[in-house]
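Progress against Task 2.4 (sequence-to-structure conversion) is shown through the following example record, which the project officer requested during the mid-term review.
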Amino acid sequence: MSGTENLLVEVDQLAAEMHGDDPPTLLDVRWRLTGPPGRDDYATGHLPGAVFVDLDTELCGPPGVAGRHPLPEPAALQAALRAAGVRAGHPVVVYDGGDGMSAARAWWTLRWAGHRSVRLLHGGHPAWVAAGLPTSTEAATPRPGDVEVRPGALPVLVAAEAAQLAAAEAGTLVDVRAAPRYRGESEPVDPVAGHVPGAVNLPAPEYVTEGRFPAVDVLRERFVAAGVVAAEPVGVYCGSGVTAAQAVFALHLAGRPDAALYVGSWSNWVADPSRPVAVGQEPGTNPA
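Structure tokens generated for the chain above:
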């Protein structure tokens, strides 16, 4: 069982820790799929001492056939994290613009890289501001860290493994995109609409609301209703592995630290035209 105290931190608790003798390293990972870059938000105001880390260029590899947000090269990731002041064994807190998606992908990436002590600020920057806590416009200049990136600490799926899990009698591959994208009725980002055959659909708003996670029992119930069985493997995908990382985070909260992320997700799946594409509603999946 993953304790929520090791995954989420509320603003009041973080504020107290920041006044301690050895405060956590703060990473601002605000990001939008489209629109102004998160670095602009950081310049406007951020948590005091936070360092901005770019999701697209520092926490992920270059887009291509591996997907729009593939795994980063370990050496490049290590350099970026060290530049941000991440130290071996020292606590890290990540936050975003409030929806929890880019922060969850940052959490997942650090955990995948072997850095266990990382939490997500519940509610992100908006929750901090709403609590009346101070912000800063001064860019942080941290002392370089010494974190060692050791890839593979969290499970991942490649396309073939995702297909096998979706087709298996035991196990569940969960697609967390919006229902019309899953059903193949619309696809605003990728060149092909539909889903991995055999995958079930659980749109992200059904387990997280504006970056706020419900109680653990509620999370468990929602994943069970989607077909996630306690003793069987579970994997998650979305469009490019960002929203799906948030689902993996939610599964950790629900006691499933074995949940695997299909990092390439749909953007990787459709890069190979020989891979099958399903449309419509899979049997046993609750319609939206």
